[in-house]
Structures are given as C-alpha cells and as structure tokens.
Amino acid sequence: MNSELVIYNTLNRKKEKFEPINPPFVGMYVCGPTVYGDAHLGHARPAITFDVLFRYLQFLDYKVRYVRNITDVGHLENDADEGEDKIAKKARLDKVEPMEIVQKYVNAFHKNMEQLNTLPPSIEPHASAHIIEQSDMVKQIIKNGFAYEVNGSVYFDVEKYAKTNNYGKLSGRVLEDLQSNTRALDGQSEKKNSFDFALWKKASPEHIMRWDSEWSEGFPGWHLECSVMSTKYLGEQFDIHGGGLDLQFPHHECEIAQSKAATGIDAVKYWMHNNLITIDGQKMSKSLGNFIKLDELFVGDHKALERAYSPQITKFFILQAHYRNPLDFSNAALQASEKGLDRMFKAYDTLQNLKSSVTSTFNVNELKEKCFAALNDDLNTPGLISHLFDGVKFINSVKDGKATISETDLDELKKLYNDVLFDILGLKLEEKSSAENSILPKVVDLLLNLRLEAKKNKDFATSDKIRNELTEMGVVVKDTKDGFEWSVE
Ligand code: ZN
What is the whole-number distance in angstroms between the Cα of residue 225 and the centre of ligand 1? Predict the structure, then answer.
C-alpha cells in the first residue's frame, strides 16, 4: 500500500505524493455526464483517465469508493442560471417525458462506457434523486450567511464568501477581474453581483422539471449537486475530485465555495483535471459541428472520419497522451494508434508462446520498474506504453531466436503485461466476428492459390496484381518452396 504514487494537484499546481486521508480507503468523485444527448469523444477522456486511476488504486490494494454523478436536473443552457433546461427542451422536441430522455441517454452512456471497457463507478447517484439533500445544503449555506433569496431563487454570495475565503484558488481567477468583466452585463439581473451563482432557481411557468421547496417551486443550481452527493457518499472531506479541465471554472470553483460555506472545511484533498480533445486542431463546439459521437466513431459514420475506429483503438489513442496534455484527434493519429495497439497485442500473443532458456538477455525487472515508475509519476500512460513497446522489441527478438529469456523472467514478463495492459489500463482484446475470423484467412489463401496457378501459367500480370494489391492492404506475402506464407503487417 505504501505506493510511490504522485499526482498533480490542480489546487496547489504541483505534483504531490498521494496520501489518502483514511487509508486503505480512498474516496473519489468524478463529475459525470449531463444526460440529454449521446456521449461524444469529449466524454471518453475523463471516463478513461479516471478509470485508469480507479483501477490503479485498486491494483495498489486501496479500497476505493468511486462516485460519478448523473446530472439530470436544472442544467441550463447558459451555465447554471439562464436559458432553458436542456433535458426539458429535448423532451419537448421529442414529445416524451423528461425522465425518458434521462433514461435513454443514461443507457446509451453505459453502453459506450462498457464498449470502452471502463469499470462502472461504485455509486452513480442521480441529482434528481437528491433534491431533499440539495435543499438542506442550501438552507445550511443561508444559515451560515453565504447565500440570499430573491423572488424565490437563492444565490450564493460570492463577494461575502471571498472576504474570508479564497474564491478563485482552484482556477486562479481573480474576483476583481470577474467583476469588471461581467458588470456591463448586469442590469436586469436579480443577483447582487453577476458572478453570484444560483443554488436554487424558481421555475418559470414553462419549466417542466420542478420540485417544491420553502423558497419556490423550482430546481437546484447545477453546481450544487456535486457538493451534495460527494458529501453524502464520501463524507465532508474526501481524497480525490476529478473532471475535465472545462469544469474547473465555474463548476469546481463553485463546488469548493459551496462545500466550505456549508461545512466550514475544505472538502477535497486532491483536485485532478484531464485536458481536452481537439479535432484537427479545433476545439469541439456546437457552432463548428465537430462533435464526434462515440457511436459515430465506432462505426465510422461522421464526415470527419475516414473510417471506423473501435473502442479499444480510441482508448489506446487517449492513453498515448498524458491526461494533462491536450490531445488532437485526427484520422492519421487514430490509424497510428491502431497499428500500435495491433503490434502490442500481437506481441502479447507471442509472449504466451515463448520458450524459455537458461538465461535472459534482457532485464525484465528493470522494465517492470520503469513501467510502474511511469504510472506513479502522475499516471504517465504514454511513458508506460513506450516502455511496453521496448518490451515488445525484446519479445519479438526472443521469438526470432535473437534473444533469450529465463523461465522466471518469462513468468514475470507475462504477469507484467497482464497486469498493465488489462488490469490497469483496462484494454481488452477485441474479437472480430467469428464469421470474419474464419472466412478472411480462407479468402487470402484462395487468392494466393490463384496467384500460384497464374504463375504456373506464366500469367505474371495477374500474379503480380494479386500480390501487389494484397501488399497494399497490409498482407505480407512470402514465397516458400512449398507455396506461400502470409501474415498481416
Ligand atoms: Zn460536478
């Protein structure tokens, strides 16, 4: 358990040794999806990043409680305070109940997460099932003097909070700047300051999702649910809070303020943020229409896609970048990941059938140490993968008779690849359909037999054509004295 894991704490802007508050227990909260549409590439990155963390902490024998919420109330178009509820809007357009929209997209999200082979969280609480707890926290914040009611809505008093607390400590925002940036927009607002945020909003007559409260019939502010559900399931203080960089401000900054205002203590020890995915160098955004849904990615149905990329290729692509670095999606990058993953899995297969010798010509222990040093260094998955590729070279040279491995080292190496590839990174061997598996090799054999016949008949044009086109597809053909051998590049 005394691991060397170091993680970058966004709160303190530095890497820190991971020391849980109450070992061996670890509480981990990650902001989950708002369920009014299909999951896209942007959802895959936090899901995969925090899945690796969840898996690795368990690998280190910590008892982890991983909570990831489902946002199914009060998430308005313009952050927390203005505009129409996105779920209600979708329900109105589709002429269904809002909760049908919620269920449909929760199901779809779970399917995508399973395709990516991420583990389900320990608890997946819905905001709509925690209205009472949310209203209780609002009461507590009012009682502590950090919120005020206007016309049935309750707002967090940021200015008052900032007098005794550091509002902006996570995002580095300065209150004076927020003030000057937003003052111009004021006027009709019922808030004291434009940067105040809603804890409870009175529902407009057309608003469908609404609950009774002592202030009005309305719905909770977006930020509130995470403070409430993390406290409920992980306690007033817990170890890790994660999410995408886009949530750092205002969402996480507001969570910090709410929790502190309610309980008087800082809730989170380590804040972790994954960076975002861009598409061909551009930010994913509604206006650019460049959101790629995971379902589209997996079947190749989007104008930006040259073809389909499987869930495991997508996952390997994401793992090949450090989670705190930006990651640019392109067809070329995905295709490179596909080749890489294929090479890795082929070597894994080879490893299972290697023959041991008396001695090793490679230091397996050193490889293992390097792999875990990379993981311990703030989940440096690209570093880890590059060490695994060093191992791949060795595995292939043992196969080719150019290197040797002892029996103990062989067992160690098999364990290392099993642990890291499957248990920690959570990769999965993807089965091609059994029809594909059984028919395709026969088709290649058939073509190569036709080529042999053509050669016998001195029809070199046909024989070359078959060989060249197969080569183009990545089939490596080798002539032997008995006929031919082939393999896929
Ligand atoms: Zn959240």
Answer: 7
